[in-house]
Design a protein that fits this description.
The chain has a 5-stranded antiparallel sheet with strand order 2-1-5-4-3, with helices on both faces. It is built from 22 helices and 14 strands. The protein has about 500 residues and is of the alpha/beta class. Helix 1 packs parallel to helix 6. It is globular and about 80 Å long.
Length: about 500
């Protein structure tokens, strides 16, 4: 065997080893979207394909829309064309026969070349493999090789091996998905509301969505309270999107981000000459939000003078621009948010009591992340996928150790801090040219820690170490009775189980 042939064969062996190893890692996924995303990216890479498409069916699939589908390497416009092309030809044949369909060029293939959709998409080399047997649970479709020419027999073999190993993984993930859907407390509200990018399934999160479903269709004031970074701005947008003003403007103003001298102008507009920078008529946020929703974040920072004018808008639906003598009409819904105690601010005469009651017709408290830790894994997976898409990074997966570290860490900055941590971890992971985010990417050691300096722990790591020791010591004192240990620590038993899993705490065999 020549050196070139030997190198080629070695490369193929390494590819196959990588395929099996990554399939094993993929099998640890429990969420359907990251699972499919990772699966398709894996086989597109191993088979040297340019583009890929994967779809899965329900048990009662009758040839309509697939329950789940995902594309890799296709533009949004190409996806719809490919779905039309393959669903009426190549995919349907693979499903009907239960056998792999291979063609060097669909355009020149007597079976498919006459189809208008195939000619429109100019489909060339294809490998299409059914997933599962009698009937197939889905199909894998690979189009175009990264290098010129048709897919090789080895490429076809890789695709078929992948599909055969994917089938039982699909069944397991679908079972877990169904079980999770059945136990998802947010499901009733997800069926009623448009909840773009609202991630979570906990009872606590469901309670918030229940309140959103109640107030969204009503044209009433809503006050969102809660710690910084909990997602109040996103929730305000959800209320708007599910209300009668949804097609109209959603205008946001952070009251803490504007100098006090400019707040009134920013809110209500100004006529020429009203202040030094008003050289022409300036419309404010109230006018910009006409007939829509005005979201006032950090409402507790609004100056008293502006509070009086905002109260007038809420009471009379009129306001005066700065320097104006004629009232302007204001048809807006106001949603406010704060992370401060407005009742205390009222008592200290820093916030108008009458405005507080106007704003807080329906108050909704947005919980801290510490109150719904069971959503951290879902949030982390979403933020990881989002970071990869925005920064055009390779598809990444979160390892179990990374998830444990994320679930057990304290997040004083709540969801926002978690999102930033996962984004940074994805960037570090890509910098190492690996495909799985590990704990070291989420919480990288400092230079002092790398030098094994024992007193150089970050607050996060020191807190984690204390929690792990405390939990283990309490369990040992309670003779490893989880019920008793949870009672002593004054936490729910389910929370203790999650912490034990996050820290990898298990009873040593006696």
């Amino acid at each position: 065997m020549s050196d070139a042939a030997h190198d080629f064969e070695t490369l193929n062996v390494l590819k196959e080893r990588d395929l099996y190893l990554r399939l094993l890692n993929l099998g640890r996924q429990t969420a359907i979207a990251p699972f499919l995303d990772g699966a398709l990216a894996l086989i597109v890479d191993v088979a040297d394909a340019r583009q890929g498409y994967l779809e899965l069916y329900d048990d009662d699939y009758l040839g309509g829309e697939p329950r789940w589908s995902i594309a890799h390497g296709f533009s949004p416009d190409e996806i719809s064309v490919v779905r039309r092309a393959v669903s009426t030809g190549i995919i349907s044949e693979a499903i009907a026969t239960g056998r792999t369909v291979v063609t060097a060029s669909a355009l020149d293939d007597d079976r498919f070349g006459s189809r208008p959709s195939v000619r429109l998409a100019r489909i060339d080399a294809v490998v299409c493999v059914p997933i599962g047997e009698d009937p197939p649970r889905g199909v894998l479709y690979l189009q175009g090789r990264a290098a010129a020419g048709a897919f090789s027999a080895r490429d076809q073999e890789h695709a078929e091996v992948f599909a055969s190993h994917l089938a039982p993984l699909v069944d397991r993930v679908l079972e877990q998905h169904s079980a999770r859907e059945a136990s998802d407390a947010t499901r009733p509200w997800r069926e009623k509301l448009r909840l773009n990018a609202m991630v979570g399934h906990s009872d606590v999160f469901a309670s918030v969505l229940k309140q959103v479903a109640l107030v969204a269709p009503l044209d009433v004031g809503v006050l969102l309270t809660g710690e910084s970074g909990t997602g109040k701005s996103q929730l305000a947008r959800v209320i708007h999107d599910n209300g009668p003003r949804a097609p109209l403007p959603f205008v946001e103003l952070n009251c803490a981000a504007i100098p006090e001298s400019l707040v009134e102008s920013e809110l209500f507009g100004a006529l020429p000459g009203a202040h030094s920078t008003a050289t022409r008529r300036m419309d404010g946020k109230v006018a910009a939000a006409e007939r829509g929703t005005l979201f006032l974040d950090e409402i507790g920072e609004l100056p008293l003078s502006a509070q009086a004018k905002l109260l007038q808008v809420l009471q009379s639906k009129h306001y005066y621009p700065l320097g104006g003598t004629k009232p302007e009409r204001a048809d807006v819904r106001v949603i406010a948010a704060t992370n401060t105690d407005l009742e205390r601010a009222v008592a200290e005469h820093r916030f108008r009591e009458d405005l507080y009651f106007r704003l807080a017709v329906v108050p909704i408290r947005v919980p801290a992340l510490a109150e719904h830790r069971e959503d951290i894994a879902d949030l982390a997976a979403y933020f990881c996928a989002d970071a990869c898409e925005r920064h055009r990074l390779p598809r990444l997966e979160l390892s179990r150790n990374a998830l444990r570290a994320l679930e057990s860490a304290e997040w004083p900055g709540n969801v926002r801090q978690l999102a930033h941590a996962v984004e940074a971890a994805a960037i570090r992971c890509t910098g190492e040219n690996v495909r799985q985010v590990e704990r070291r990417h989420v919480f990288p050691p400092t230079a002092a820690q790398s030098a094994d300096t024992p007193d150089a722990l970050t607050l996060q790591e020191a807190t984690r170490q204390f929690q792990a020791r405390f939990i283990r010591d309490t369990l040992e004192d309670a003779a490893w009775s989880v019920v008793e240990a949870a009672r002593r620590m004054d936490i729910a038993r389910s929370h203790l189980y999650r912490l034990m899993n996050a820290f990898g705490i298990e009873r040593s065999p006696s």
